[in-house]
Structure formats: structure tokens, C-alpha cells
Amino acid sequence: MPLPEATFATARTRSYDLSVTTQGPLHPPSEIVDENGDSVVIGMTDRAAPDGSAVVSSDSAPPVRHGDGTAVREPLRLAQWARARGQLTVHVPGDRRTADFSFTFTGLIPDSLYAVMSLREHGLDPAGPARPGPLGIPGAFLSDRHGTAHYQATLLNPFPGRAAGSSRITNVVVLWMSNQLTSCGATGSRGPGGDLHAQLTLRGPAFQEFTTVSGG
After folding, report:
1. pLDDT tens digits, one per residue of 174-190
2. What whole-number distance in Å separates Cα of residue 158 and Cα of residue 179?
3. Which helix (H) or strand (E) holds 79?
4. Contact criterion met (CB below 8 Å) for 109 and 56
5. How distant, in Å, are the alpha carbons of 34, 83, 99 from that of 25?
6. Are 64 and 179 in contact (CB under 8 A)?
7. Strand, helix or coil at 80?
8. What are the chain's domains?
9. Where are the strands (E) in 94-148, listed by range?
């Protein structure tokens, strides 16, 4: 007796535009400061971000030796930071066991190391927070001398059904590593604003239209 053929759901694909930011999590309020040490916020704020220049804090010196190479060649200005653009395409194949995340970037800081962080559904729930983690392994990429880059990752079951305790990916954050050392989308050695700085993200929780399943 012949075995029944397996049935699969229709594959789904959607693209998202990433928005420039100076925030990863909402605390600290910014990961970029100006020459006075004040936070320059682009992202979740009830006031317009101040217009003017901003530099990464000189207190965030990389924990490497001078002979290992320079990490930051010159101060960064807010206008350069805000030129970053990115697009994310998410594709869930018919078996719904995985999801492909494909990024295209322009306007990044040239010749620089970046990491990609994933945020989970209950990431800010004090009763059971889900820590941020890398979006794929190794979770890092280099921009070229023009500030363009591509990144791709395939994850197992990143959008499980909304049962109690589910840990769906709801957002992604593209992080510039000011010390040019990778922590693969984790919190780094000095934390947000110290050695990693959020530059692109989605404006709010996303991917609700996708559902994935665990492999059988």
C-alpha cells in the first residue's frame, strides 16, 4: 500500500525596511553621546532627537593593545550615522521548520565590524526575560569601503505558535561594534553604549504573520 504524500503549507516571504536608531533595548536611552556626554536619541522617544554632531564616548576604548590595530579612526558624526539603510527579507519555506533572514545594507560605517542581535517576545518580561542573542552564528559581518554589506542567516523554528512561554523572535537590531571585536550579537564586554551601538532596527514588534514548527 503506497504511503500518503506529505503535505506542506505554502511558503511565505516578506520584506521589511530597517530604521536608523541609536537604541538597542530601551535602556540605556541611547548608545551614542555628543561631545558633552549627553545621549543623542534616534528611536523610541517622545521628543525629536537633537540636531547636531555626536561622537562615540571616548570612555569606550577597546580592551586591546595599541599594536593590535586601530578600532576607530576618527569621531563619528550624527549625519554619517543616520545615513544607514537596511532591508530585511524573511522567507519561511513550505515545511515551516526554518526561516531565512536576508539583509542588504547601504550607508554603514565603512570597513567596520557589525553584529546582528535578535529580540524575543518576552525579552522585557521581568518574570521570565528572554535574553537577546545573535541572529544566526557567527552573527557578524563586515561592511566594505563603501559602507555596503549583506548578511544571511537560517534559524530553526524562530516563530513558534503563541503558546505560554513561547519565545518568538519579534525584532532584530544591527549593532556597530566600536571596538571592532565581535561578541556575536550578545551584550559585549561593556554593554550597550560601551562597545556595541545599535544603528538599525525595525520600528516595533514584527513577524506576526509567520508561524514555524519544530522538526519532527
Report:
1. 998 877 776 654 555 55
2. 30
3. helix 78-81
4. no
5. 19, 21, 24
6. yes
7. helix
8. 12-41+73-201 (2.60.40)
9. 98-106, 113-120, 133-134, 140-142
